[in-house]
């Protein structure tokens, strides 16, 4: 069973960003599956590496479009991205294979941040981007 199932409540009304969000959900679900299979410790670091690269690309795309269109809440949105990236970096740096609960703790953080950010912060730009012709 997936940790997060994509549904329309996550849609930001911009197909390109929705596609990227679906990819991110897939990565979180893969980590969830690895943890459930007892392979969380082995999966955490590679998953964080993949997520970091993908999130960086995604954040860059969102922020570039926000700047281009003069999105009024750009700075606040960008600060959430920076805080998230810092936390993921901290997880990668501090991860220890002898902490059995650590993969679940990391996954819970990623899931909660993702759901809160997409369903909250990202949805705030939906109407703005749509009004600028982005769909």
Number of domains: 1
Quaternary assembly: single chain
Proportion of helical residues: over 70%
Using only C-alpha atoms, the radius of gyration works out to 15 Å
- Within the CATH hierarchy, at the fold level, what is the topology? Four Helix Bundle (Hemerythrin (Met), subunit A)
Which secondary-structure class do the elements indicate?
A: mainly alpha
**What would CATH call the class?**
Mainly Alpha
CATH superfamily: Hemerythrin-like
Total strands: the figure is: 0
SSE string, helix = H, strand = E?
HHHHH
Number of helices: 5
Strand content: under 5%
CATH architecture heading: Up-down Bundle
Shape: globular
Main sheet summary: none
Round the mean pLDDT to the nearest integer and report it: 92
- How far is the N terminus from the C terminus? 30 Å
Short description, anyone?
The chain has helices spanning 15-36, 40-68, 74-94, 102-121, 126-131.
What labels describe this entry?
mainly alpha, Four Helix Bundle (Hemerythrin (Met), subunit A), 0% strand, 135 residues, 73% helix, single chain
3D architecture notes:
The protein is an all-alpha fold and 135 residues long. The mean pLDDT is 92. The protein has a single domain, classed as Hemerythrin-like (Four Helix Bundle (Hemerythrin (Met), subunit A), Up-down Bundle). The chain is 73% helix and 0% strand. It contains five helices and no strands. Helix 3 packs antiparallel against helix 4.
